[in-house]
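Summary of Year 1 activities. Much of the first year was spent building the evaluation harness for sequence design. The harness presents a backbone, in tokenized form, and records the residue chosen at every position. We chose the following record to illustrate the format because it has been used consistently in internal testing since the harness was completed.
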């Protein structure tokens, strides 16, 4: 149970009810971070719009590269909710979620491509405290993905750091979007 209770649908205003309906249609359930953020309706709406805009603007990197880096940041932060939700999203995109079990060994694993390894290592460097990103690392990423790709990757990893830290601080834990090997939420 989160430290700040979720806003129940019956107690929600029209904007929150609209957000909940949209989320249920898209994900099969209302993500708990949205329901907790509904305690501050304006920030909930701003966050929802931001997430949609980021998703639409992210067209440079291959989804597998971007999503693995985001997932790795969630793992490093220990955000149970982010790991749960991220696994579901990767499954819905047709990505291989079985290899997520081996992400701690990404550097030597044949399950990950060179591009994926670069992105995961960058997620590690960005998620450390203090941040340990190097000039050489960014140069290597730029050679692989281009400048716009590096900016997109950096933005997504930074955004996941914010999500994971907010969710952890508010006590938002896994919601059951994935359960063992099977996803509880049907693919849209």
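For this record, the design step produced the sequence shown next.
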């Amino acid at each position: 149970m989160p430290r700040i209770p979720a806003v129940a649908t019956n107690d929600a205003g029209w904007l929150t009810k609209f957000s909940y309906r949209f989320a249920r249609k898209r994900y099969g359930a209302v993500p708990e971070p949205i329901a907790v953020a509904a305690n501050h309706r304006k920030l909930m709406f701003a966050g929802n719009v931001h997430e949609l805009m980021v998703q639409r603007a992210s067209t440079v990197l291959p989804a597998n590269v971007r999503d693995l880096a985001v997932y790795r940041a969630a793992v490093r932060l220990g955000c149970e909710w982010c790991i749960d939700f991220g696994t579901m999203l990767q499954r819905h995109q047709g990505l291989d979620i079985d290899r997520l079990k081996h992400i701690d060994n990404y550097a030597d694993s044949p399950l990950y491509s060179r591009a994926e390894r670069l992105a995961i290592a960058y997620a590690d460097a960005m998620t450390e405290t203090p941040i340990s990103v190097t000039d050489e690392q960014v140069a290597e990423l730029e050679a692989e993905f281009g400048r716009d790709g590096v900016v997109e990757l950096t933005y997504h990893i930074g955004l996941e750091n914010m999500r994971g830290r907010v969710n952890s601080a508010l006590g938002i834990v896994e919601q059951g979007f994935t359960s063992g090997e099977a996803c509880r939420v049907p693919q849209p």
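The chain has seven helices and two strands. Quantitative recovery figures across the full test set are reported in Table 2.
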